[in-house]
Specification:
Elements (H helix, E strand, L loop, with lengths): L7 E4 L3 H11 L3 E8 L4 H4 L5 E9 L2 E10 L19 E4 L3 H10 L3 E12 L2 E9 L5 E7 L2
Parallel strand pairs: 1-4, 5-8
Antiparallel strand pairs: 2-3, 3-4, 6-7, 7-8
Amino acid sequence: MVLTVSHLGLCVSDLERSLRFYRDGLGFEPAGAHEVGGEFARLMELGSLEVSSRMLRRDGVMLELLAFATPAAVGPADRRPMNQLGFTHLALRVDDVAAVAATIEEFGGAVVEGTRTVLDIGGMPLDFVYCTDPDGVRIELMALDG
């Protein structure tokens, strides 16, 4: 069986804000843009369809930002509980958790300060914090020195 990971899709409420966050804030590079219509309605299990798609790439990971004009995006823009079935988070390995967390806030995301966890396991310092993108998608920052 041939199987390769293509991309991760994120439904966003404001395409320009999410592009600014992922592209300008986190350094993802533009990798394609598409306007999607009825030809994908069946695949997406939606009736009429108007969607703007923007592909972004970084470190071999491809994100697809999907901005729905018709039908409009639904659901809360709250961070999901970690024990809710489905996608839980996007993990980013960083060299400085505090610096990247500040960038996330600068570009419209939020830092969940109560999640900050610093550990020393066998002399290896570990530093973690959860953040969210502008639509509440959980992002884990982790610095693993050693």
